[in-house]
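QA checklist item 7 of 12: single-chain prediction sanity check.
[x] sequence parsed
[x] length recorded as 836
[x] structure emitted
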Amino acid sequence: MEIDRVPFLNRLRRTMSSAEAWGFSVVGYLMWFTLAPLIQAEIGSASLWVWIPGVIVGILFNLQVQSLGEKYPDVSGGTPNYITRLLHRYPALSRYLGIAYYLGWVSFPAINAIVLTNLIQFHLEPMGLNIPEKVFEIGFTAIAYFLALSGTRAVAILHLFFIFPSIGFLLLFCVQGLGWLAFSPQSPGLLPSSIDAISVQDWLKWYLFAAYSFYGCDTASSFVADSVHPKDTLKALSWVAWFMPLVFVGGPLVLVQLATAAGLEGNLYGNFLAAAKPFWGDAAPALVTLLVAASCLLGSATSVCNTPRILFQLAQDGLLSPVFGAVSRRGSLEPALLLTFICSLGFLVWGNTTRIVVVSGVSFFISIMGLHLGLWMQRNDPVVRWGRLSLALLVVEFISLVVGGFAWGWMDFGLGLLLPLVVIAIDAAILRIRWASLHLPWWDRLHTKPVTPPKNEYFVVLQVGILIALICGTATISWLIRSRLRVEAGTNNPYLLIIVLMTLAFVGVAIACWTTLPQVAAIEELAISSTAQAKELETTLNELKKAQMQVIQSEKMSSLGQLVAGIAHEINNPVNFIHGNLTHLEEYTQNLLRMIELYQQRHPSNDPDVQAMAEEIDLEFVTEDIQKIVSSMKVGTERIRGIVVSLRNFSRMDEADFKDVDIHEGIESTLLILQHRIKDRSDRRAVVVIKDYGKLPKVECFPGQLNQVFMNILVNALDALEDMNTKRSYQELKDTPPQITIRTSAIDNQWVEVAIADNGMGMPDPVKQRIFDPFFTTKPIGKGTGLGMSISYHIITEKHRGKIKCFSTPGSGTKFVIEIPIRQQTISAFPIPAES
């Protein structure tokens, strides 16, 4: 069933700075941070055989995603939504793969909540205290979602404050640990004396488990559509790629050599504490606690910002319910966040980090396989860097998925395969349930309600009261906990303070976002409302002016098209009558001539009157010339019929919908109509037309409108050449004749390109920048209206969802490049590729 696309108004605004977008890019390192102790506990130094090839693949993967992001800078969600474009011919498969990637990230808040809860329990156990683990896990999972519901910018800014204590200390751990191993006298050595062997089955099993890390460093691509500077945001992918060896190889070396104490098993805090003590000394517990707490909160913040964007873009592309494309004023994707929160809570049912990683990792791994499948299928696309290598990686990944998946357990493997189908089923149910809140119009009405500061003074009192209650409650709870720790434990644990402070930072910002900040935003909106209304009025007037211009031009072209079609029809009838009779006339003439010739042979006559008449009419000449006259008349009628066909092809009044047409036929029709301006005349030199036609398939378009674009561009080129010719000498015209070059080519299996260039005088930059503006013209009054190129831009970009670009340098001519999709339905679910 085809799903309607989300309306154009539901778009993410580019409000995120480069620094904020870069902050989201490093969370892939935190996945290694979470998974490394589990792998270390199971296979020891053999983990290096998993991490080293994983780093190589991860670097190639990041650089490939960066290349895709450059092609699709307006696509939110990153990698999974690039998969849908690579596999656009298989919408059901691409939707499954996009959801599979989404589920891999949805589990991250749950994993971080479990790690944070275990960290608190680790610090409380020496005091004989226990906590309700599930309550804490749900609470830590909900904090990030609570904050994200108030707006992405708040999360992005808060996110930056956790970058240094998490990524900063993680990189410091790797660098300082490697330095200590390399140079300290107490070091066991930079490299282990021997690396444990690992079987092929175990390698495949742990490659599947660790893939989360080296395939998860592509996070920056999710926020390209939000970024004010998308190209700068994409640079983060290459930076993260080149730092992978330090983290994914250097980090495991430090753990293998220093986290060797008994009883550590897969305990994250214990492993990193044991490894850090030799070089961080007494500061190790505080720094590792800070690193773990900040990393978990940072990872959750990234996940709650990343995952809703995947659903949002899938809804934009018509692959999910439109409701997931709802966007609030502050950029919050509420329906997508609510579903994501429910899925995260679902992962907590397992309550075991390893099992969550396996189940969600299988889904995530399938989506990566889908990306490599798409890259191989589109291997001839210039944006694909390693198309053939992708096939080899796909084979390895398939074997790893099957062998590794069953090694972890058929039940978890099966759940990982089925979970995307469960989400798709939920989406199908949402489409059929008639609750208003499950459909986009309800959210649109909610988001378009005007935001005004409360007029009721009691509402302000309530806001202040809530803030006071929260502050006092937090202080009271802190005092009670502190008192209880001193009385029952008789000791002091300063490391819990780190966790409490970081958690309160999240809670505090969330409180502000839900109470104070909306009121500040409302006041700001009122302060700028008059300016906004003035701008809106100006925009409306410009739009009306543009619409009026388009209506006038449309009516003009419609009338002209009807006139041309009518004339062509009227000419066609008598010409066909003449052309049809010429065939008979030629036959009769030939018969009469043969009869005369036969009569002369059989009955020669010396009658002087007959001889005189033959000489008077010049019978020999008439006999020869009458055949030429009939042939010439046939050529003339053929040419008239060709002109009529060209006129009808150009007007195309009978085709008001998309039609499959030959682009070359439209160009030829336009050239034929303009032949009177192209051919040589006494007052001007002929224009040389060079045709470099490529092999093009039939293109789905509005033929008449596309021919109008060709006409406008060619007329402008001819005007430019005529202006240039008036300023050149005869010798200059002879040496460099006026020339128009028309080149066509197929960019790939989705787009065709038509380039029309002249060797005129070119345009300066100020003119070139305004060439598509309505009513802008450099021609004298009465010769140009300034509508032609504006209408052409509208036809190409809006009617055909293509691109038209102008390249011109003074003295070097002008070139217009048109790119349009071969099939409109192919791109109906996807944004137009950005200009390079």
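[x] summary fact logged: The CA atoms of residues 145 and 304 lie 6 Å apart.
[ ] second reviewer sign-off
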